[in-house]
């Protein structure tokens, strides 16, 4: 690496687009892959982001682009968090150091970004379905500007734990058309993968019939029978020999090839060339890889370098966050542990996000009461419903964006049956570098419209402690509380939570002319805005709603009665808290008196990745925005206009 950690990459420098790879022989392609790995490490060291998964597919990306003809052939990366090497090979190297930044490259595949990203992703396990769609579009003469060639899904072993992957294979196996799936098996999800499938894949790798091939996977070519050692014949024979009957994938209608060493370019090129020339139906290539491959700090870390803040390439040391306040996630986990210490019925569920949700801490303390169900939000929700029906007190800790996948289960299995599942909804609101796909924008709307739900949001981390205690006590129906990514505001913390009266908000600051009603963690900005307004002679009340359902009727009607204008703010899309407040006010006739009302919700766009602060600016939710909205409601010229 050079001083600025820019690696020396003479062959990669000759590659702008995948067609440039055609100039290289196999030995040179190996070198391209090595250089690609260094470039990926270098780029992520300055941007932060998903490192380990990309390092594990450097050879697969190089081999796929060398053998197939993209963008006519469609490579669909599942989740897309491993696609940085693919981006470098597909015309985006000059922008690779803008990954996940405002105005920069997305950290996932994105159709708008490049014709080499035929399908956008970020949520897992969609690749085989999408590839099956491309496959049938090809068969039916679909109109695609780049043409329609092979459809190739690259899916990880973690993503293979989701039902959707099997729904897709079940369908593709039935359609019997040519489709290529590469199972990138690195024995890791974000955390070590769980479940019977993971054990099954391990058996495929370790089982007796594969011993020779396993040796081959480690590069011991001399251990292979002679035909495997010879050029084209070798490739053909290798594929033939690796295909064995009886795997789960074959039962689903796929030809199974493997396991192969996903870092061995010879094997990859041989297998892919053979599949390209010979496949006439669905094929699954099982490639064994290593997450974090080739970068010791990633390989040796427990998460194999899954996601990294900016880091020093030489030491692997990451840049620390400046805040001293605890993260909401940690506060949630610690509060739940406290409640569980007093209540043996409390248990917790995560869908493959033990660290992200803080449930790794809960699992350490209560291993028998914590369940990682894999990337299976749908199952996780219904499993929680079953636990609740069986008299347990389940807390399903799921990111807002991923709970979308379990929505029918929330409605059908939880809400309609009135089962007391507690949803701890992390990453509510705008999350920053992961961008639009990971924004928690919709949960307020999609939960408040369900009869019988209690829906809460803490304004700070101390309130979160109380809401965990509150949820623990709600036994007569489902409940949810949402909190954002990142650190709290640094308030004093209670030792243990005290349940809050259901459906009761609180006045934080009294005023007379204007009221700001905040739901969730925009309370601090609301108070700051009120102070600005006070200095301008606009006496401002601030209220913390705490509940979006049931609403605090008394509080809301009082705010409407006693103020000239009401600003309502929430970090979510239209249709949530503000809509319910306005519905109440309209129903009660409180709008007939001329109350001036201004809801502040996310704009009707998907907001691209940026710093959380910048995303809040785009969303129009800063202190300044609240002040301007209040002035607008009162018909007072904005501060900006006055200054001008
Ligand atoms: C529906 C959904 N749930 C959870 C996640 C969070 N998530 C992102 S990557 C990942 C692990 C994926 O594991 P695998 O497919 O094996 O890829 P690897 O990182 O090992 O390369 C998870 C759980 C997600 N993206 N989508
Ligand atoms: C790719 C993916 O979905 C996750 O890795 C996600 O990026 C995690 O986000 P957090 O960093 O907020 O846990
Ligand atoms: Mg994996």
From TrEMBL:
| E.C. numbers | 2.2.1.7
Q: Which GO terms describe its biological process?
A: isopentenyl diphosphate biosynthetic process, methylerythritol 4-phosphate pathway; terpenoid biosynthetic process; thiamine biosynthetic process
Report residues binding thiamine diphosphate. Answer: 81, 122-124, 158-159, 186, 295, 377
Q: Which GO terms describe its molecular function?
A: 1-deoxy-D-xylulose-5-phosphate synthase activity; magnesium ion binding; thiamine pyrophosphate binding
Cofactor info, note text: Binds 1 thiamine pyrophosphate per subunit.
Q: Which residues form the Transketolase-like pyrimidine-binding domain?
A: 326-491
- Known cofactor(s): thiamine diphosphate; Mg(2+)
Q: Which catalytic reaction applies to this protein?
A: D-glyceraldehyde 3-phosphate + pyruvate + H(+) = 1-deoxy-D-xylulose 5-phosphate + CO2
Binding positions for Mg(2+) per the UniProt entry: 157, 186
Q: In which pathway does it act?
A: Metabolic intermediate biosynthesis; 1-deoxy-D-xylulose 5-phosphate biosynthesis; 1-deoxy-D-xylulose 5-phosphate from D-glyceraldehyde 3-phosphate and pyruvate: step 1/1
Q: Which keywords fit this entry according to its UniProt record? A: Isoprene biosynthesis, Magnesium, Metal-binding, Thiamine biosynthesis, Thiamine pyrophosphate, Transferase
Please name the NCBIfam families in this protein's record: dxs (TIGR00204), PRK05444.2-2 (NF003933)
Subunit structure, briefly? Homodimer.
Stated role: Catalyzes the acyloin condensation reaction between C atoms 2 and 3 of pyruvate and glyceraldehyde 3-phosphate to yield 1-deoxy-D-xylulose-5-phosphate (DXP).
What family is it from? Answer: Belongs to the transketolase family. DXPS subfamily.
User: HAMAP family under this entry?
Assistant: DXP_synth
Under what name is this protein listed? Answer: 1-deoxy-D-xylulose-5-phosphate synthase
| Organism encoding this protein | Rubricella aquisinus
Q: What is the lineage of its organism?
A: Bacteria, Pseudomonadati, Pseudomonadota, Alphaproteobacteria, Rhodobacterales
- The encoding gene is dxs
């Amino acid at each position: 690496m050079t001083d600025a950690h820019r690696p020396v990459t003479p062959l990669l420098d000759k590659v702008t687009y995948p067609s440039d790879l055609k100039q290289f022989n196999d030995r040179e392609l190996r070198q391209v892959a090595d250089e690609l790995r260094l470039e990926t490490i270098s780029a992520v060291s300055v941007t932060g982001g998903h490192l380990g998964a990309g390092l594990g597919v450097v050879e697969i990306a190089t081999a796929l682009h060398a053998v197939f003809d993209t963008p006519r052939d469609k490579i669909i990366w599942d989740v897309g968090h491993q696609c940085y090497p693919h981006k470098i090979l597909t015309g985006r190297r000059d922008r690779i150091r803008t990954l996940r930044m405002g105005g920069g490259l997305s950290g996932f595949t994105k159709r708008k970004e490049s014709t080499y990203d035929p399908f956008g992703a970020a949520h897992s396990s969609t690749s085989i379905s999408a590839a099956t769609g491309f496959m049938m579009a090809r068969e039916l003469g679909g109109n695609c500007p780049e043409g329609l060639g092979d459809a190739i899904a690259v899916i990880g072993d973690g993503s293979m734990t989701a039902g959707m992957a099997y729904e897709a294979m079940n369908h593709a196996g039935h359609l019997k058309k040519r489709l290529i799936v590469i199972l990138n098996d690195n024995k890791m999800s974000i955390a070590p993968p769980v479940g019977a499938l993971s054990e099954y894949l391990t058996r495929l790798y370790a089982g007796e019939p594969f011993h020779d091939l396993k040796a081959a996977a480690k590069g011991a070519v001399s251990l292979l029978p002679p035909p495997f050692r010879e050029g084209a014949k070798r490739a053909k024979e290798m594929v033939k020999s690796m295909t064995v009957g009886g795997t789960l994938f074959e039962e689903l209608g796929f030809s199974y090839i493997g396991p192969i060493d996903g870092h061995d370019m010879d094997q990859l090129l041989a297998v892919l060339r053979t599949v390209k020339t010979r496949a006439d139906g669905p094929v699954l290539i099982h490639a064994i890889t290593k997450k974090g491959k080739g970068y010791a700090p990633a390989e040796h870390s427990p998460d194999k370098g899954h996601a990294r803040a900016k880091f020093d390439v030489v030491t692997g040391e990451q840049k620390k966050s400046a805040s001293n306040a605890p993260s909401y996630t940690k506060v949630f986990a610690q509060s739940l542990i406290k409640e569980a210490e007093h209540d043996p019925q409390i248990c917790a569920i995560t869908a493959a996000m033990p660290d992200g949700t803080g449930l790794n801490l809960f699992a350490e303390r209560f291993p028998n009461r914590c369940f990682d169900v894999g990337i299976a939000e749908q199952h996780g929700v219904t499993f929680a419903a079953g636990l609740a029906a069986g008299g347990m007190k389940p807390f399903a800790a799921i990111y807002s964006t991923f709970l979308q996948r379990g929505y029918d289960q929330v409605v059908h299995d939880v809400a309609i049956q009135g089962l007391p599942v507690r949803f701890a909804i992390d990453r509510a609101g705008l999350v920053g570098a992961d961008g639009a796909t990971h924004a928690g924008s919709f949960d307020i709307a999609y939960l408040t419209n369900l009869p019988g739900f209690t829906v809460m949001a803490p304004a700070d981390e101390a309130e979160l402690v109380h809401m965990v205690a509150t949820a623990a006590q709600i036994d007569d129906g489902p409940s949810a509380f949402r909190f954002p990514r990142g650190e709290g505001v640094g308030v004093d913390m209670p030792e243990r939570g005290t349940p809050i009266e259901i459906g009761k908000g609180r006045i934080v600051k009294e005023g007379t002319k204007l009221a700001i009603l905040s739901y969730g963690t925009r309370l601090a900005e609301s108070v700051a805005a009120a102070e600005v307004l006070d200095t301008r002679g606009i006496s401002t009340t601030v209220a913390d709603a705490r509940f979006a359902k049931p609403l605090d009727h008394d509080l809301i009607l009082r705010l409407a009665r006693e103020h000239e204008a009401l600003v309502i703010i929430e970090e979510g899309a239209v249709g949530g808290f503000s809509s319910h407040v306005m519905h109440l006010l309209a129903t009660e006739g409180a709008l007939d008196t001329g109350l001036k009302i201004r809801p502040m919700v996310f704009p009707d766009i998907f907001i691209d990745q940026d710093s959380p602060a910048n995303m809040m600016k785009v969303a129009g939710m800063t202190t300044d925005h609240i002040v301007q909205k209040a002035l607008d409601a009162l018909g007072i010229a904005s501060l900006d206009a006055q200054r001008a």
